Amino acid sequence: NDVDESEKKIEKPIDPKKPVGNNGEKVKATFVTLARNRDVYELVGSIREIEDRFNHNFHYDWVFLNDEEFDDEFKRITTAMVTGKTHYGTIPKEQWGFPEWIDTDKAAAVRKDMRERKIIYGDSISYRHMCRYESGFFFRHPLMEQFDYYWRVEPGIKIYCDIDYDVFKYFKDNNFAYGFTISLPEYKETIPTLWETTKKFIDENPQYVDKNSMKDFISDDGGSSYNGCHFWSNFEVGDLSLWRSEAYLKYFDYLDQAGGFFYERWGDAPVHSIAAALFLPRERIHFFDDVGYYHVPFHNCPVDQKVRLSHRCSCNPKDDFTFKGYSCVNRYYKVNQLKKPDGWQQYGD
Ligand code: GDP
Ligand code: MN
């Protein structure tokens, strides 16, 4: 017969690992998750959310970090879920333990006191190691060195809307350094001396504060006190060079020496947020008003119906925290003179 051979050829399936939607121009970027082996079944849901809403089109890698060795079950399950490459790292002991200059008796007395005062995670040692690690070390892990951008994902989160653009390329093209979805004031009991310590650091190193910083976001009185506003760090998209900068490395070291990760309960969220607000020009901090996000107990659900419909968001705008009285995103819009989305008043309080 005279059928053209080429017509009979079955088209090769598209390589599932080939990036689409960004013309194959992949940014050096990765998801990163700190987790324990027992977190795996809460984590698969988060991975599924990220994959279904975003990464099935882009196939970015995923780095998993743990203070203990990951077991085979954790690796098997997460590898099956992620459409990019997966990497598994163990954290060096000296980055997950008491530094030698910490008085462990004093730290124990603080935990006892915080337990009695019922301060959230106040009695936990591992939570403090976690906060210190996320503040000062995750970006220096050898597995992270090959990457320029990261997106932090925790177990139990939801992504409510389709993300049809390459978030990392968008970050790179716009020179964004830090992105967030939710912001609120920190519990003051966990950070009694964080601001005093920060002020001492910037008095000694004024050159690190950007002349167009977003200091007015974290202070209502020109810098004399901290208003507690922080970006919720269970979701972060960022440029790793922010944390690898001389300014941040010195700042972290200064905080670490001061001991507040153990003598108080400094979280990585206020530490990252204060640094981003001081060391970056304000235009490098990005609020994601289009992705929809949940981590217990707060929701970000785009209040603009046009956004929700076009991105197929599966959330109720009545649950949105963004414009509620307690949310610091109101302040973010104000200090940056941004226009709030249509219909926001309906969802404030
Ligand atoms: P919360 O969101 O502040 O309530 O804190 P989480 O319990 O979600 O912990 C924050 C992140 O650190 C999550 O990604 C956890 O999986 C991880 N994490 C917390 N504690 C530990 C720990 O002791 N070891 C490891 N490897 N990961 C931890
Ligand atoms: Mn969490």
From TrEMBL:
> Which SUPFAM superfamilies does the entry link to?
Nucleotide-diphospho-sugar transferases
Pfam families named in the record: Glyco_transf_15
- GO molecular function terms here? alpha-1,2-mannosyltransferase activity
Q: Which InterPro entries match?
A: Glyco_trans_15 (IPR002685), Nucleotide-diphossugar_trans (IPR029044)
Output the Gene Ontology cellular-component terms. Answer: Golgi apparatus; membrane
Q: Name the Gene Ontology biological process terms.
A: cell wall mannoprotein biosynthetic process; protein N-linked glycosylation; protein O-linked glycosylation
Which residues carry out catalysis? Answer: E236 (nucleophile)
Start-end of Basic and acidic residues biased regions? 6-18
Keyword flag Acyltransferase: no
Identify the keywords attached in UniProt to this record, alphabetized: Glycosyltransferase, Signal, Signal-anchor, Transferase, Transmembrane
Keyword Cell membrane among UniProt keywords? no
Q: What is its main location?
A: membrane
- Which membrane topology term applies here? Single-pass type II membrane protein
Annotated localization: Membrane
* Family membership noted in the UniProt record: Belongs to the glycosyltransferase 15 family.
This chain's protein is named DEKNAAC101007
Q: What is the lineage of its organism?
A: Eukaryota, Fungi, Dikarya, Ascomycota, Saccharomycotina
